[in-house]
Design goal:
The protein has 205 residues and is of the alpha+beta class. The chain has 10 helices and 7 strands. Helix 1 packs across helix 2 and helix 5 packs antiparallel against helix 7.
């Protein structure tokens, strides 16, 4: 799944891009603004708006010389639109729930990379940083089972592979001092899922 454009799993048309923008908007927007946010032409977006207004999925209001558009959240199809537009938020919720139920809790878990930024595509891994507690062997049956189950779940939920970067707690200090590129990426974009806060983890003494 393209986490940044989940509608593309069903359709790659202008319609889906416009609906994603409308679902994420908290106020009415003009056709030009919708086109800019969707990265589509004004003409193409206007054709889409005319059609979905006719179906009642979108409200159109004339304000001065401008038409403003807003998703009709009472429409029968609105929950479907909102759910697909919120796929990334749902992924984060499921990851937190799954890791929160682990018997052996990590020192830290976070989502990073393209899925965290919202700019991935169907070939992108769902990148996860998992810090294993001190004293827990990497081949511990419970621990390894949790990681494998999480990877399987990510694949079922999204169609993407899970790229799990598993780090023992003892090595975190080395990552802080060496500062490889991935640490800078994680520090900037990570979404915390469990345990210690990412930025605190990477700067602690």
């Amino acid at each position: 799944m393209d986490v940044s454009k989940p509608f593309s799993a069903i359709s790659s048309s202008v319609d889906t891009d416009v609906l994603v923008v409308l679902a994420g908007s908290t106020k009415p927007r003009s056709g030009r603004e919708l086109a800019r946010r969707a990265g589509r032409s004004n003409t193409g977006v206007q054709h889409v708006l005319d059609r979905i207004v006719e179906h009642g999925l979108v409200y159109r209001e004339e304000v001065g010389r401008t038409f403003l558009y807003e998703l009709n959240r009472d429409h029968l199809l609105a929950p479907v639109v909102e759910q697909m537009a919120g796929a990334r938020i749902e992924l984060i919720r499921r990851l937190r729930e799954a890791i929160g139920a682990w018997r052996a809790q990590p020192i830290h878990a976070s989502l990073f990379g393209s899925a965290a930024r919202g700019d991935g595509d169907t070939s992108s891994d769902i990148d996860l940083l998992i810090v294993r507690p001190t004293g827990l062997a990497p081949d511990d049956v419970t621990w390894r089972g949790q990681l494998d189950a999480l990877a399987d779940s990510v694949r079922r939920w999204t169609g993407n592979n899970a790229g799990i970067a598993e780090v023992p707690d003892e090595e975190v200090s080395r990552l802080r001092s060496d500062r490889p590129p991935v640490v800078e990426e994680i520090s900037k974009d990570a979404v915390d899922l469990a345990g210690e806060d990412t930025r605190k983890l990477l700067r602690r003494s």
